[in-house]
Amino acid sequence: MAAATGLTPRSIRYYEEMGLLSPAARSQGAYRLYDASDVERLAFIRDLRDDAGFSLAEIGRLLEDEEARIRDRARFAAAGDTAQKRAIVRDLIARIDAQVAILEGKAARITTMIQTAEARRGHLRAHLAELEGGLPAHDGRTRHPETGP
Amino acid sequence: MAAATGLTPRSIRYYEEMGLLSPAARSQGAYRLYDASDVERLAFIRDLRDDAGFSLAEIGRLLEDEEARIRDRARFAAAGDTAQKRAIVRDLIARIDAQVAILEGKAARITTMIQTAEARRGHLRAHLAELEGGLPAHDGRTRHPETGP
DNA sequence: GCCAACCTTCACGCACACGTCAAGGTTGTG
DNA sequence: CACAACCTTGACGTGTGCGTGAAGGTTGGC
Q1: Cβ separation of B124 and A96 shorter than 8 Å?
Q2: Cβ-based contacts (< 7 Å) between B 9-38 and strand D
Q3: pLDDT tens, B51-100?
Q4: pTM to 2 decimals?
């Protein structure tokens, strides 16, 4: 499992201990046994941690929602009343809305930082063009207009 | 300063201790004194920490680059040779390219997560529409097409 | 000049996210 | 069945990012 996800065994056990993973199936000798869906889930946790920079607590909340969603699906299947079903589905949608809002906020902040950096880069490129226009290059490069970003 | 940035005094001192801030100016009685650029820098650190989810070590690396950039500007001003100047500017651009790449990678991962969530939401909305189409609402709401997100 | 409200530097404490042994049990292969 | 290579559960250690006093100094307003 560690090899499959790039995580350490210790981290995987820790995530199970913290409730991010449902306790793994066990062999007769108490070895943990994982299936493909466990690998997926762990990879997702790893991505949330490494790529989105969420803390395990935040990941836990997201996955709680995920599990609440699954429980809701069960409740949904059990619910006879259509009005109840609609209410459950609306709740699910609202939860996803909240998650999307959090992620979009994060993406927006990062986009702002990217734009700031690109603005600086633009200035530097203009400066470089100015330098290269002022004096011809003597390192083999030829001057040419640039239309890229 | 804490009030201006929403950080705690302890955090601010810690960031100075960790080298994220250059040591603040001091009053005659050794009180730290900050100016507007310090506020900006701290707010930037706070955003990198809270919004982008960077560790202080990562922020430190980004700001090191920032300071290398400033040093490079000085080197640039001192450089007499135009070829040297161009080399310095190209280095600066390359550093920004690297930062942008990191940020864009992060943004892309988050965008992927958003799309996954939105796909789920789309399915749920279709399901909800199906439910509402199958049986008319009896809670005062009227059915109507939705063109929003 | 006095005083409340701030600031200063240690110094210890704590929660998170693991790393790292220790002591023992399990598994698959020869 | 022997054995290397894995796994198990503790339990303690570590680095990060601060919180929380303690003991004292500084500042600005009256």
Answers
A1: yes
A2: 10-11, 14, 18, 27-31
A3: 888 899 999 988 877 777 778 778 878 877 888 888 888 988 888 888 78
A4: 0.76
- Over residues B14-57, the pLDDT tens digits come to 999 999 999 999 999 999 999 999 999 999 899 889 888 889 99
What span, in angstroms and rounded, lies between the C-alpha atoms of B52 and B106?
8
CB atoms near residue A19 (< 10 Å): 13
C-alpha Rg value of chain B to the nearest Å: 25
Listing DSSP states for chain B in one string gives: -HHHHT--HHHHHHHHHTTSSPPPEE-TT--EE--HHHHHHHHHHHHHHHTS---HHHHHHHHHHHHHHHHHHHHHHH---HHHHHHHHHHHHHHHHHHHHHHHHHHHHHHHHHHHHHHHHHHHHHHHHHHHHHS---SS---------
User: Nearest Cβ partner of B85 from A99, A109, A131?
Assistant: A131
Please list every residue in chain A whose beta carbon sits closer than 8 Å to the beta carbon of residue B83: 138-139
CB contact under 8 A, A53 and B106: yes
Torsion of CA A123, A124, A125, A130, to 10 degrees: 90
